[in-house]
UniProtKB/TrEMBL annotation:
Organism: Actimicrobium antarcticum
Pfam family, one: HgmA_C
Keywords, comma-separated and alphabetical: Dioxygenase, Iron, Metal-binding, Oxidoreductase
Official protein name in the record: Homogentisate 1,2-dioxygenase
Gene name of the record: hmgA
Biological classification of the source: Bacteria, Pseudomonadati, Pseudomonadota, Betaproteobacteria, Burkholderiales
Homogentisate 1,2-dioxygenase C-terminal domain: residues covered: 289-440
Family designation: Belongs to the homogentisate dioxygenase family.
Record domain Homogentisate 1,2-dioxygenase N-terminal: where: 10-286
Coiled coil residues, start to end: none
Gene3D superfamilies the record matches: Jelly Rolls
Length: 442
């Protein structure tokens, strides 16, 4: 990729703004998108991530100026990736139980020789990609970089949350370096590949979480009374600068299309975009830049104050998916039980832990694990957390060195058969609440 050393990597700042970048000076047409002959004998190609007629504030599209248009590729054949399923599997009734998975093993059969695509596993999903509704909650376990192999997803955008191992995400629009603690968002239809520099250097497998969003694109939440600053600030999102590969030779392009996988040979690199402009772009974001807001008086606020990105549904305020983080923060609430309350919610909650401890489950929820509390399934702090927080001296306390997150959806998540049969399923999860005795003192 015009091999850019990471120290020289540059990014464009912002979320959903009009970016513009050229890897070769003069490659971007000026004053129009589609001149009779594009500069430098490039082909102009439009990539739209929304309908042409989507309202202006939601409309996302970019113009790519490339050495050959995307349509130049070999024919597609079926490709097998049985662990990456799409949408809700409804084969059997699902018990209304809280569910949890231990960290998926990094040295298991799933990982060996797998790259980011082959190592993807759907744990739970809802909705239907054809209907452009719902999300999948996935985990990748991989130890091999994608080299002359690229991927494109027609079924949704991918929100990538690395948990172990850095990622180098080469996209048509340039390169993103993404480390645990950071996230990346790759729009539907953008071709990319993922290299695993830590795995390549012998530091073991790479693992992380992915939200495959079949619905409306993620955008920043409204801030309401918070005002014009705070939470994830648009400025802290980083889009790549244009870069293209120069090495000749063949590629494989894997495509996810209608829940099925396809593979086509290409005689050239799909990373051949010399310049681009527009507001549809992959981005990365460092969660360390999240301006966290909390209660400075009393009570535990709703976790919606931790929303980084939201994918709306057609019911206002009732998201297809909210991406919510639980970052390091101070707890200062007075006269308050500080961890999450016991609760039953309309919304369904899939959670993961990047590192550290989660305050509602200090022992049982491990980095690389996952939990699922579907709509109206009761849950809350485990006994250890309840006992500690009920007796705690309420001086200011820093929850440090931690990053949990939640994919929260209005639609119930259906775990996959693979996830239900996995040895990582924590069949004793509900025991963490079993000791909460009736201590009523009338
Ligand atoms: O269940 C959970 O751990 C997630 C969560 C956290 C919180 O602070 C409030 C509500 C909620 O669902
Ligand atoms: Fe919850």
């Amino acid at each position: 990729m015009s091999s850019v050393p990471s120290s020289e990597l540059r990014y464009q700042s912002g979320f959903g703004n009009e970016y513009a970048s050229e890897a070769v000076a003069g490659a971007l047409p000026q004053g129009r998108n589609s001149p009779q002959r594009a500069p430098l004998a490039l082909y102009a190609e439009l990539l739209s991530g929304t309908a042409f007629t989507a309202p202006r504030h939601q409309n996302r599209r970019s113009w790519l100026y490339r050495r050959q248009p995307s349509v130049v590729s070999g024919r597609y054949q079926a490709y097998s990736q049985a662990r990456w399923t799409t949408g809700a599997e409804r084969a059997s009734a699902l018990a209304p139980e809280p569910m949890r998975w231990h960290p998926l093993p990094l040295d298991g059969a799933e990982t060996s020789g797998a790259d980011f695509i082959d190592g993807m596993h759907t744990l739970a999903a809802n909705g239907d990609a054809e209907a452009q509704v719902g999300i999948g909650s996935l985990m990748y376990l991989a130890n091999r970089s994608m080299e002359r192999r690229a991927f494109v997803n027609a079924d949704g955008e991918l929100l990538i949350v690395p948990q172990q191992g850095r990622l180098v995400i080469t996209t048509e629009m340039g390169v993103l370096h993404v480390a645990p603690g950071e996230i990346a968002l790759v729009p539907r239809g953008v071709v990319f590949k993922v290299a695993l520099p830590d795995s390549d250097a012998g530091h073991g497998a790479s693992r992380g979480y992915v939200c495959e969003n079949y619905g409306a694109q993620f955008h920043l939440p409204e801030l309401g009374p918070i005002g014009s600053n705070g939470l994830a600030n648009a400025r802290d999102f980083q889009a790549p600068v244009a870069a293209f590969e120069t090495e000749p030779g063949a590629y494989e392009l894997i495509k996810k299309f209608g829940g099925h996988f396809w593979i086509a040979p290409m005689q050239h690199s799909p990373f051949n975009v010399v310049a681009w402009h527009g507001n549809l772009a992959p981005v990365k974001y460092d969660t360390a830049n999240f301006m966290t807001i909390g209660s400075i008086s009393f009570d535990h606020p709703d976790p919606s104050i931790f929303t980084v990105l939201t994918s709306p549904s057609d019911t206002p305020g009732t998201a297809n998916c909210d991406f919510v983080i639980f970052p390091p923060r101070w707890l200062v609430m007075e006269g308050t039980f500080r961890p999450p309350w016991y609760h039953r919610n309309l919304m369904s909650e899939f959670m993961g832990l990047v590192h550290g401890e989660y305050d509602a489950k200090p022992g049982g929820f491990k980095p690389g694990g996952a939990s699922l509390h579907n709509s109206m399934v009761p849950h809350g702090p485990d006994q250890e957390a309840f006992d500690k927080a009920s007796a705690a001296d309420l001086k200011p306390q820093k929850l440090d060195n931690t990053l949990a997150f939640m994919f929260e959806s209005r639609y119930r998540f259906i775990p996959t058969t693979w996830a239900l049969q996995s040895p990582a399923l924590d069949t004793d999860y509900a025991d963490c609440w079993a000791g909460l005795q009736d201590t009523f003192k009338p």
